[in-house]
Design goal:
The protein is mainly beta. The chain is built from two helices and 23 strands. The protein is globular.
Length: about 425
Amino acid sequence: MHPIEGGSIIKSHSDPTADLLKKRILDLIVILLFLFSSSSHSDAIEIQNSLNVEFAWVDLEKEESRLRENHWGDQIFDGFNLQTSLYSKLSVGDAFSAVLMPVQVTPREGRDLFFRKAYLRFELGNVAIKIGRDSLWWGPGRHGALLLSNNAFPFDLVQIGTAAPFSLPGFLAPLGRFEIEGFLTRLEEHRDFPHPRLLGLRFVYRPREDLMIGFSRVTMFGGEGRPGLTLVDFVGRYFSKPNEAGKFEVNEVAGFDLRWRPPLGQILPGHVVELYGEYGGEDEARFRPTKPAFLGGVEWVHERKRLIIEYANNHVGGFADVWYTHTLYTSGYTYRGDIIGHHMGSDAKDLYIRTELPLSMRWVAGVDFELERRHLSSPIQERMRRWGGDLTYLSGTGTAYSARLIDEQIENLNLLPVNETNLYGILTAAWNF
């Protein structure tokens, strides 16, 4: 869910070699999209396009811009914002796909063009390989995730995992189905240790169709100015004692999550309820997560009506600002300055409620509320209350139009005795073709 939606200017600095490699990957994707779109073998090829145009007028009382939560690291600026994006996907069966998503943003002080998504994906048997730029979201949360979300700018990554859930052979098949996923990316240059690596591994177990259990671990290591690790060094420490000081010190977060759909439909036909939760640790003791954080929620759906209630808490009593910070990697668990995990940040609590109600076959109304408290270990705490409402029209021909209004009130902005009231008006049009 994205309670604030607007535009941003994204600017980055990287080394010439990395820029050249990214350009070559983008060139390859563009060439493949052109070749396949003009190929005579169109029966084996599927092309999907989605054009999205978004206009926002924003009144920020005290700031020039604010981060858009769960929106790929975008900022929304005071005044006029216009964002245009084109999502294009070319698929050749299940074996190959290419995705390209250019975005142009035009706030009041200029414009910028960048790629939000640009990747190639291959399937070899039940192994999926992705190379390029994309976001990751690990966990069942609808409004946030403790370890990985789309709150920060998308990664330039290599991702390998199972293309579909699989069962063990023979007599082990009744145990259920499994999924495995891993990725490796390099973070930005302008931080305490330039270009550290971020490695993530996730294992998902589905003992039944109504139950899913996930285990995730993300490790930040290396970077310019840090001692180099051989593959043997890294693998040995990764699967033995973590968080050693000195040469082998890393920044890690880990956790597990689950989602369960109780058989409510047997009692109330057509009603679907999902209970979900995520538990993570910023540290460990005897291989158990410590300094924990928690996210839990419930989603109810019935005949296009929907209700979501979600709560997250990473406040650890006696330890101020533990989550997403580190004593060695002082730039924290961030990418381009934004939290990679839950948008609420460190030492915070967040409550989110949203309901959606169909007014007719074409019209859908939504209302949401969010209460967020940050820096809970500080004598002065920042508190944010946000009300939002939206109205969406679905044409039935692949076109949708929506209007959204948001009222946001912040107390003790940036831990200063300053209060702020912000208003957002957003119009969006989307065409699928």
